[in-house]
Amino acid sequence: MQAVVIDRGDVGLRVDLVLLRHLRHVPGVTRNRLQRLIADGAVEINGRVITRSSMRLALADTLTVALPARPPRVKPAAESLPIDVVYEDDSLLIVNKPAGQVAHPAFRNTSGTLLNALLAHAGGTWQPALVSRLDKDTSGLLLVAKGGAVQAALQKIGDRNGIEKDYLAVVFGKPPGKGTIDLALDRDPWDRRRVTVRDRGGARSVTKFQRMRVIPSDNGTFVSLVKCRLVTGRTHQIRVHLLAKGWPIVGDPIYKGQSPARPTLGRQALHAWRLAFTHPLTAARIDVTAPLPADMEQLLVETGHIE
User: Fold this and answer.
1) Neighbours of 60 (CB within 10 A)
2) Choosing from 10, 135, 166, 252, which is the catalytic residue?
3) Is 135 a residue of the active site?
4) In whole angstroms, what is the distance from residue 24 CA to residue 192 CA?
5) pLDDT digits 0-9 by tens, 190-230
6) Taking the complete model, does pTM exceed 0.85, yes or no?
């Protein structure tokens, strides 16, 4: 049981935001989790159970919340799942992850992940280690090391900007032909799942972009195919940067901005299209691409060849 005494900075604020402010140091605490706990009757104000996250607080109110213990982490198991291997050698491989698949097991996704599939692919002869991650609903290329030593070597290459990562995104609007977005990013203080642009503070974040195709829509607006290269690799960087410039990604459920109603998609139209780097052991140049998945192709009817 966690107790919170309301101070002047909490007066008049919503219960969920106050709890998030005071309990953000507790592992696993998010605004969504707190809202679920409130709805389940696990939060009391002055000894009275509440079920509405929007309730406002007064000075000297006492909040108590029953935080259930988080279950211990279970070692991921090998699962015979489909896996699209684009490149593989004795030390690393590159896979094309479909949209809708989680990359790594987590609290709410303990099976069916790419790592589960990689463990089966390895067959116990090597240990897969993800060098990069993609959001569940972002498709495309992921770099995987066969063991910790290769993972560390690849991460050093990445730290020196030695891994070229190009993405394709379908966005609302008509960006310039090319340019650079240089906007600092940080976690949203009220919702740790989101990332936001910061005028002060935050981590410097840079994305280079090139407009590749413009498609007029039937409501007088435009949809564009944009290639983005990550200069830095922050969480949700491309999604937040494009939204900040006024070109939200089609289908993005979180960073959607003021987008026209059509076209739409069941996920963000973002695809990790290309990976290129120098192999840490053989010094060979690795340069691979993954074609757009069918749902993004459908958004780009008659767009022609992507160069």
Assistant:
1) 10
2) 135
3) yes
4) 9
5) 776 789 998 877 899 999 999 999 988 767 788 899 999 99
6) no
